[in-house]
């Protein structure tokens, strides 16, 4: 009986490890999309729903370029430029067309659905027999022998189920952190500070003769470029792109931002961008763990996402109100003790 319990424990621990590894691997790629959402929602204070469309645009452009013989790295750059263009159009609709920010994003998101279908020529494109960035990285990585070293180290800890390769997760951690540091630096430059000021107080920054229209357009372009980059990498990692794979991306991005801010804080820009990356990984991990519950199915992922966002939004407010109530209670107790002392 003890042997059976031990065997079940080892199997469950192996399953936990491989689920966590998968969550980190996909979460670090989705973190790029979350950084894009952070730029539009937090920095620019712009509710940009273009994300659901530009994510697919990145995957569509990268996939169709690779299928037509374009080198994967160049195909990914094309995807980033396409995402930037989508964001620019949204910005122009808002600033020059005077269309409501929310409606601008919705209009562009709807338009991108048809555009993405035109780009792909069909609802989905397979990359399983094509050379992608990750295929090339894995080939180079295998020659280094790092996988054997890491797997031996993990095996010595008693874990039996091992990942096929560590290449994607390690390379993507480096790439994502590099983009995070570039974003931090950009937001501290003169243009970056003007961008942040535009989101904080547009009228104030206009009084300093700053062109807020251009800043908004550029900001949305950069935001959607990051989203498209994430879409292109997800398509290459998964081996396909689908016209509907962007549904709910804005909610996932917001969940990552909210969870990251709640868990890791927002004292500085550098800390906040790191929190967003951490939030994306935590979100994927929570989702992976939730889907392991017996009565939940893969189709419940969107429901789980909604619950995660609700909990992430409500919990900090409950904690804050509880702290405020405790502070007031202590203050009243202090005042009452002083009054008793004075009366004595």
UniProtKB/TrEMBL annotation:
TM segment ranges: 16-37, 73-95, 102-121, 166-187, 214-235, 247-265, 272-291, 303-320
Presence of keyword Ligase: no
CDD domains: TM_PBP1_branched-chain-AA_like (cd06574)
Compartments reported by the entry: Cell membrane
Source organism superkingdom: Bacteria
Bilayer topology annotation: Multi-pass membrane protein
GO molecular function, one term: transmembrane transporter activity
Any GO CC annotation of this UniProt entry: plasma membrane
Signal peptide interval: none
Cell membrane in keyword set: yes
Principal localisation: membrane
Name of this chain's protein: Putative ABC transport system permease protein
Keywords for the protein's UniProt record, in alphabetical order: Cell membrane, Membrane, Transmembrane, Transmembrane helix
Alphabetized InterPro entries for the sequence: ABC_transp_permease (IPR001851)
């Amino acid at each position: 009986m003890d042997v059976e319990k031990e065997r079940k424990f080892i199997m469950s621990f192996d399953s936990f490890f491989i689920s966590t590894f998968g969550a980190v691997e996909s979460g670090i790629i989705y973190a790029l999309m979350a950084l894009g959402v952070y730029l539009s929602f937090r920095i620019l204070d712009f509710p940009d729903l273009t994300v659901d469309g530009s994510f697919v645009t990145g995957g569509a452009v990268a996939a169709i370029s690779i299928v037509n013989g374009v080198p994967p790295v160049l195909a990914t750059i094309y995807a980033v430029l396409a995402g930037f263009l989508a964001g620019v159009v949204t910005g122009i609709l808002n600033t020059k067309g005077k269309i409501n920010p929310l409606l601008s994003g919705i209009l562009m998101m709807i338009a991108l659905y048809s555009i993405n279908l035109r780009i792909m020529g069909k609802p989905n494109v397979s990359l399983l027999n094509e050379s992608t960035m990750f295929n090339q990285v894995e080939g180079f990585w295998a020659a280094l022998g790092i996988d054997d070293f890491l797997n031996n180290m993990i095996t010595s800890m008693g874990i039996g189920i091992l990942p096929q390769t560590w290449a994607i997760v390690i390379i993507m951690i480096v790439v994502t952190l590099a983009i995070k540091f570039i974003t931090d630096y950009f937001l501290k430059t003169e243009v970056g500070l003007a961008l942040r000021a535009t989101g904080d107080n547009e009228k104030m920054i206009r009084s300093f003769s700053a062109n807020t229209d251009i800043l908004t357009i550029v900001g949305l372009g950069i935001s959607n470029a990051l989203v498209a980059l994430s879409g292109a990498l997800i398509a290459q990692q998964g081996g396909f792109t689908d016209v509907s794979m962007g549904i709910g991306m804005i909610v996932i991005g917001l969940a990552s931002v909210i969870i990251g801010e709640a868990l890791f804080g927002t004292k500085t820009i550098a800390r906040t961008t790191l929190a967003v990356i951490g939030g994306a990984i935590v979100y994927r991990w929570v989702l992976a763990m939730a889907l392991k519950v017996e009565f939940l199915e893969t189709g419940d992922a969107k429901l789980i996402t909604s619950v995660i966002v609700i909990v992430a939004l409500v919990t900090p407010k409950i904690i804050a109100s509880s702290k405020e109530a405790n502070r007031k209670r202590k203050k009243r107790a202090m005042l009452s003790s002083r009054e008793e002392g004075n009366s004595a």
